[in-house]
Each structure stands twice: as structure tokens, then as C-alpha cells.
Amino acid sequence: MRRSPNVMNNSRVDLVVVGGGIAGLTAANRGAQLGLKTVVLEKGVEEKYLCNTRYTGGTLHICMDDIMAGEETHLAAIERICDGARPDLARAVARNAGRAVCWLQGEGCKFIKASASPHHRWVLAPPGRVRPGLDWEGRSGDVLLRRLGENLAKRGGTFIRGARAKRALTENGRCIGVTAEIDGATKEFNAKSVILADGGFQASLDLLRNHITEYPEKLHQRNAGTGVGDGLRMAQEAGAAVAGTERFYGHLLSLDALTKDGLWPYPYLDSVVTAGVLVGKEGSRFTDEGLGGVNAANGVALLKDPQSAAVVFDDAIWETAGRHGLIAANPHLPREGATMYQADNLGDLARMLDMPNLEQTIQAYNAAIASGATEGLSPPRSTLKGAPMVIQAPPFRAAPVVAGITYTMGGVSIDGNARVLSIDDTPIEGFYAAGATTGGLEGGSGVGYVGGLSKSAVTGLLAAEHAAGVPAH
């Protein structure tokens, strides 16, 4: 994709797409496929510009299930785990998930079955998850972006690198284009339709502070660092509503990931947390571990000190749940230099951690498991993502953790056609959003995770098709 900073200034096209990740390039290609004169504005300047798609492991799933499981299965899962999801958007994602995979295959994207788990049946090839730390070049999302970029060029689309969109242009309640800063100059791009697909706001400390946590600087940026909320700001300035901005998708990482690159984006500690106990500064539980690692990461982010938490487990958990996953905590955490405390009894472990309530917390937890009364704990301990295990087999271990934020689950409100909605819940004509820029699907009280790549591919298709006048599927 050649950088073309001087094209299209003050000229009218059919479609302007803001952002060159999977959502943006899916939308741009589908639009061009349907005959729309299309321009993509990507703020990255390098040929392999960074974005979250570049870093992805490549798994397309819906709610951790096979993406080909079917509309009703998907809809039931979304409704179960994402309380508050917008019904028409949930239905559209459920209905079109499998079609999005087929469309990507038609674009030349390859898939493999990465494991026996249902959610690993459709993984971009070559897969991205092969070792701890970053490992993306020539893999997964990197290959996908190259393929979609080449396809867009063949279809006559224009891709402009070094173009940072700044403002949505509106006229009589309709979006008619955007302005972008290119080489220090502001250029205007007039269009019949605009699709915002620039990712979430996970890398903006100001927006994180406004929407998610008082201490965003104490999170780990488990992302490409490029999602700073430009699309969210542009949409709000144009009168758009937002939804679900208080939640994010991410994982619990070793606290040492802040200083050791081999400890992010993998391995993470979600399976250990789901089997064990997550405690705060004094050694008391503060969240329901049974809701899974994404929920736990959000819980850690809300602490007064988001770097004070630790996951506590025993040898049995370490040798079972600790080995779950393609890049498991056991043995990769210690291999990559993660801090782990170990003691022959809980009292000594509590003293090592300086957590006076820890021993009492674990005793109460074990007793609740033995009596089958974990729902009576405070906070309760559910089993949605896995059953709790008693912590009784020495050596006892603890690993300090940090919340690694990958992308924000909320953002610009859209409907089932990916149209941007105004604060009175009516569509803004000519204005669309796709991928992690959007809100209204994931999140809710249990921080329900649908799937970032899947959501992006589906909403990218829906936005382009509606912009081209194609009837909804």
C-alpha cells in the first residue's frame, strides 16, 4: 500500500474509512467490491503500521464458541453473558458471524484449527500464538492486513498512510466527510458515507481516566498503543451517543510485564485466576473469579492501587489450570522471569506478601467449596468460566498481577446496520462505525466478551453494505 498524501484533497468519494485494521480494511474492501469509490485514512506511517490487528493471535469466535455454530447459538450466548447488549446489534452479529469468515476466505485469508477447543476452530494462518512475548511479523493479523491491503489496491481503492482523521463533517444532520491532518496540513475528504474504524481508546490515559479507572497509568498497555479514541471524539462532536465505555477486554499479566517484554501479550494468568483466588492489598477477595480473566482484569483496574493485587494458588492448581492454554502460565511465567512467591504454609505466604487477611481469606474460601456454598462468599464465587479448586496442596504460591488492557469494549453507539446513533437513538445519515470503535454489544455487569476480530469483521461488512444500499442479511 503506497502512501499517497496529496490525493483526494477536497474531492468527493463514495466512502471514507478511518482506520486500517481488520474492521477498516474489511469495510473498505467490501465497499469497493460493491462499486463504491473508497478511501482509507490510516494515521500510521510505516508500511507495516501498528494496530491491534497486527498483534492479534488470530482467533475468530463468538463468546468462546465455534464461530460457525449458528445464529441462534450465538445469540443465546451473547444474551447470556452480555447483559445490556443492544438486541438488533446482537442479532446482526450472531447472524453474520459465519458469513464474515466465509467472506475473509474469499479474500484469500487462510484458517487453521489451532486446538480441540471450539473457539480455536477458526484461527488465522499462520497462527500468531507460538511463544511468550510479541511475535507478529509474517503471522496472523500481519498477513491478513497485507492481503486485504493488496485486494483494496486491485479494486481501485486508495489507502493513505500518515493521515490522522480529526473531525467529522456534517450538514443538515448528515455526515458528509471528514478532515484529516497529513504532513502538518489539514485536508478535507468529502464523501457520501464515513465509517469510523480506528480502534478503541485503550491507549488514551485521559479517556481511560474519564471512563474506566482513576489510575490508567497503572495498567499495562497490552495493545499496539495506537487506539487513542479519535473516532470516539469525532462521533461525539457530531452528536453521537456512546455505550458501555466503562469496560475493556484484557487479561491479567504478571506485574513484571511492565518491565519485561517476554511477559506480554502472553502468557497470561486467567486460567489460574479462575481456579484460584484473586486478592487485593490486604489479602481479601474483591471480585468473582468464576466470571473469568477478562472480568478479573476489569476488577483489578478499579482498585485504588491497580498494582497491589495477586493471584493465590497451590501446587495442584499450578499443575492443572496453570498448564491450560497455548502459551500457559506454567512453565512460561517463571521462564520469562515473572515474580512468584512460594511457601510451605499460608501463614508464611501471607507474611511474604504483607497481606494480613490472606490466611483467613483462603480458609473461608476452602470451607465454602467444601460445603458447596461459594455463592455465599463476599463477593460470591460463581462457576461460569470454571469451577473453584481448594487451595490446600503445598507449596502455596502467589503471583503479583497487573491488568493488561487490549481494547475498550464500549464506544460509539451503533445499530444492527452499524449506523452511528445520535443521543436520541436515531441514525446519523451517512455515518457508520465498526470494530473496537463501537459500543452496545460487549460488556455489561459480567464484562461479557464476544470476540474482537469477529465483531470487527462483521460490523465492517455491515457498515459497507448498508452504505452501498445492500439489503441487510
Instruction: Give the end-to-end Cα distance, rounded to a whole number of Å.
Output: 31 Å
Fraction of helical residues: 25-40%
Poorly predicted ranges (pLDDT <50, ≥5 residues)? 1-9
Number of domains: 2
Structural class: alpha/beta
- Average residue-wise pLDDT: 95
**CATH homologous superfamily annotation of the largest domain:** FAD/NAD(P)-binding domain
Please tell me how large the radius of gyration is: 22 Å
Q: What is the CATH class of the largest domain?
A: Alpha Beta
So, CATH architecture of the largest domain?
3-Layer(bba) Sandwich
Largest sheet: 8 strands, mixed
CATH topology term of the largest domain: FAD/NAD(P)-binding domain
The share of residues in extended strands comes to: 15-25%
Number of strands: 21
Categorize the overall geometry.
elongated
Q: Count the DSSP helices.
A: 14
Which features would summarize this protein structure in a list?
473 residues, alpha/beta, FAD/NAD(P)-binding domain, Flavocytochrome C3, Chain A, domain 1, eight-stranded mixed sheet, six-stranded mixed sheet, elongated, disordered N terminus
What's the helix and strand layout?
Blueprint: E1 12-18, H1 22-33, E2 38-42, H2 52-55, E3 61-62, E4 65-66, H3 71-81, H4 87-106, E5 111-112, E6 123-124, H5 140-154, E7 158-161, E8 163-171, E9 174-182, E10 185-196, H6 205-211, E11 220-221, H7 230-237, E12 242-243, E13 248-254, H8 270-275, E14 277-279, H9 293-301, E15 310-313, H10 315-319, H11 329-335, E16 341-343, H12 346-353, H13 358-371, E17 396-408, E18 411-413, E19 419-421, E20 427-433, E21 438-439, H14 452-467
Parallel strand pairs: 1-2, 1-10, 2-7, 10-20, 11-17, 18-21
Antiparallel strand pairs: 3-4, 5-6, 8-9, 9-10, 12-18, 13-17, 14-15, 15-17, 16-17, 19-20
Helix pairs in contact: 1-5, 1-14, 3-4, 4-14
